[in-house]
Amino acid sequence: EKVAKRDGLTLKTVQGDMSDLGDFEDEYFDIVVNPVSNLFVKDVHLVWNEVSRVLKNKGVLIAGFTNPLLWIFDDNQEQKGILDVKHSIPSSTLDYLPEDEVQDYIDSNQTIEYAHTLEDQIQGQIDAGFA
Asked: Which whole number is the average pLDDT over 26-37?
């Protein structure tokens, strides 16, 4: 907002849930930029469906996402330069924790990240109407 004010731009910010864009009418936006943020939602299909709904016909979606291979390796081994496949996808940060540590992790307000498959990322966009 500070930069927009400095440069004389009109900007409206809305804090909400990217998987529920109900505050916006259908075909509201000319462009939607979704940076590498959908790793924070459990069901990425909800995001793609909502973006498709609020994006105008012939609108532009710019989306980035993390390669899911990032999450398959054992973190401790990777720090030693060893790529040891330990985790599967889809998965979440919580899946990697011992069961007795899950609630403490949630209570600590750390981010929960979800490793979505490329199929969910790419085919999910196609299924939502992006071609």
From this structure: 95
